[in-house]
Amino acid sequence: MHLINRGLNILWALIFVMIICTVLYADTHNNRIVQTKEENSHNNKTESSGEIKEDGKLTFDDIRGMRAGDILDMEYADDDLIDSLFFKEEIGDEIMSRIMGISYKENNNISLGELNYIRVLHVGFDDMVHIGELIVNKAIADDIIDIMKILYNNKYPIEKMLLVDEYGGDDITSMSDNNTSAFNYRLIANTDMLSNHAMGMAIDINPLYNPYVTADKEGNINISPENGSGYADRTKDFMYKIDEFDLCYKLFISYGFSWGGSWSRSKDYQHFEKTIN
Prior knowledge:
The protein is α+β, with helices and mostly antiparallel strands.
């Protein structure tokens, strides 16, 4: 009898241990379920935040805050976004602070109110999409935007497009760096006459490869920029050359611009300007 009672006590002890283990397992399992739900909830919140940015796609506001010259990944950009990145605006405080005393000087010929700041996209020599910027006269702002949009859609290469103020307003330095630019309140080189750039009515495209060529009275040839001398002979075939067969030439002419490459006394192959009556 004693042995039977002892056996029953051991049995009840085993049952008690099993009950305790079952309770502990259930509690641990439930805690794990709660923890997993919390983790999943956290992960879902993270994924939702990512969905707002559409897996890292840039928005207009993102790109608007970037600097001219920056490179964009346009793989997932739709037509509406691309179209919105070609725009004009008044000369605001930020642009004014960049140009005052450099490309823009106090004068009686043109006011800041007659100019527009333009942002566009262009395909660089690296085949990447770059942000470009120009300042032009309001009278040609829409023309320039249209032309730049067509050039972009045709992947026409323009190496750089920054305000000449990034070069201290020095036209030679800007040209030497093959920078495409427009407004600069300055005189025509070696004269006392205002350039059409001073009125925002002219633009220079890929100037290193399309230099300004003049001759003095002694017949000495001057090429500007100097490092563009190898591209002054237009009988040669080379990349980025503007001529009558070039898309850039055809577009500007179709919009009523004249080309410096057609001048008789000098040749300014980079230069397009427009006269508004």
